Known about the structure:
Elements (H helix, E strand, L loop, with lengths): L2 H8 L4 H16 L9
Amino acid sequence: MSPVEAAAALGPLTDEQCEEVARWLRLMASGKDEGGGQP
């Protein structure tokens, strides 16, 4: 399950959670995720 899917399942996000999701999406979009794929 991706962070975005997990967040959607939990419901409303805090500002901090939104930042985490946005950061993850930017990593995926840039293709520079150092984790070697989905976390």
